[in-house]
Amino acid sequence: MIDRIRDTARRWLADGIVDVFLGFRKRPDGTVVPVRIRDAGEADGLFFGDGCVHNLMGLVDLRSEEKVGVLLKGCDGRAFVQLAIEGEADRGRFKVLGVVCPGLSSNGSLEEKCETCRYNTPPVYDELVKEDGVESWEKGPVADGLAEVESMSHPVRAAYFKNEFDRCIRCYACRDICPLCYCEECVTEKSRPQWVEVGVKTSSNFYWHLIRAYHLAGRCVACGECDRACPVDIPLKYLNRKLSREVEELFDYVPGTDPDATPVLLEFKEDEEHVLCPGDES
Amino acid sequence: MGKEKDRGYDPVIVGLLCNWCTYAGADLAGTTRIKHPQNMRAIRIPCSGRVSPHFLFTSLFQGADGVFIGGCHPADCHYTSGNYYARRRFALMKSLLDFVGIEPDRLRLEWVSASEGDRFAEVVTEFTEGVKALERPHSLKRDGLES
After folding, report:
1. What is the nearest CA distance from B31 to chain A, expressed in angstroms?
2. Is residue B53 part of a domain?
3. What is the pTM assigned to this prediction?
4. Is B87 helix (H, G, I), strand (E, B) or coil?
């Protein structure tokens, strides 16, 4: 499979189909890093396998006009589709080399985000590569690990999240790594009005994490990058998963899976009053 | 808040009321002298579709015990569809806040038209009673330091 990835990247670059190709490289010490290559000769250094957890859509310059070739796993492919339907990624600018993702491991066990993965193949691609024996699949809702939090009473939940958010150093790595957080000016940088206080304290940390999660409601593609980037291990995935589940249950929408969809909060149905009191559908 | 001694839990409720329907409904409740609790501080907004999550988060973090949003009935929005968008957004805001420890009874979206002064008094009374029944401020009030 790696050979096919290298061949494709080499061909696209050599033929001028793309100006730049985004993929992965394995460093001599065994760590895997994303790379941008512009020269067909560099394609031999590309790699795919364990460690390729990064979502390359987060590294694409959406404002550039360059033609981009990009290697996308299932989750990354969903980010691409979601960006496309939001008008941020122009399909014509991208050549997508899809990977039927076998699931990635670290230290011998499957990555947490791969355990809860529901789509191992990008919804759109120009070419697709796969390993022998690995097929494309889609799954329905999977166990999301939220039951533990949801079984707590409201005050205990608040204390739980307060405890988690207290560690936040407001580095905004979660925002910066997120492929869907593309605002040129984030709400945290706005001062008229200043909704989110800048200081690192419980209330403003809480506020930041709520607004970050809400801004990703119906958009999060579960690539797990925020969680991975967090230097203090705040379980950001819980907030994202909670909203993803609500969006799917209430609006039957799974972000980034349908290239013809309208973003879920940009449309409505006249007949959906039940969303105000879920569980009480009479 | 400061009156907890003599009146028990006296919650502060922020009311975000649509200019065209619910705000006028509130006005009607007032001019026709229909009795209802005074906990709600009414804020006039152009449309329920104007409600940003910031309005809820900021209210709750700066001392409100509950937030009430009032809009035009479905199919009656002055801007055609603002209330439909509000409905989707509100459902998600509420479930997110529920998830981090804000009781769902503290948030409500209701449709009240300009002619429904009695209904306004009714839903506000019911909502206020619901917040009062929780007996204490939510856990994120005062810097989230209360247990």
Report:
1. 30
2. yes
3. 0.92
4. helix
Which tokens sit at A255? 């972000």
Measured CA distances, A135 to A117, A131, A157, A255, B83 (Å): 14, 8, 40, 22, 44
* Nearest-neighbour CA in chain B from A228: distance (Å): 21
Give the pLDDT confidence of A210-249 residue by residue, as tens digits.
999 999 999 999 999 999 999 999 999 999 999 999 999 9
The 10s digit of each residue's pLDDT in A64-107 is 999 999 999 999 999 999 999 999 999 999 999 999 999 999 88
Contact B23, B44 (CB under 8 A): yes
Q: Which residues of A touch B101 (CB under 8 A)?
A: 154-161
Disruptive mutation site among B51, B92, B107, B134 for chain A (greatest number of A CBs within 10 Å)? B92
Two tokens, residue A183: 């605002």
Q: What distance in Å separates residue A110's CA from the closest CA in chain B? A: 28
Q: Do B91 and A201 touch (CB under 8 A)?
A: no
B143, part of any domain: no
Between A150, A195, A276, which is nearest B54 by CB? Answer: A195
| Domain region containing B97 | 10-135
Cβ <8 Å between A278 and B85: no
Phi and psi torsions of B89, nearest 5°: -65, -45
* Residue showing tokens 């009146």: B7
Q: What is the DSSP track for B14-71? A: EEEEETTTHHHHHHHHHHTT----S-EEEEEES-GGG--HHHHHHHHHTT-SEEEEEE
Q: For residue A167, count other CB atoms closer than 10 A to its CB.
A: 13
CATH number assigned to the domain comprising residue B50: 3.40.50.960
A276 touches B at CB < 8 Å? yes
Name the average pLDDT for chain B: 91
Q: Do A210 and B84 touch (CB under 8 A)?
A: no
Nearest beta carbon to residue B139 from set A159, A251, A278:
A159
How much is the ipTM here?
0.91
Residue A222 Cα, gap to closest chain B Cα (Å): 17
In whole angstroms, give the CA distance from residue A213 to residue B70: 25
Chain B residues whose beta carbon lies within 8 Å of the beta carbon of residue A279: none
pLDDT value at residue A282? 40
Q: Which amino acid belongs to residue A255?
A: P
Domain count for chain B: 1
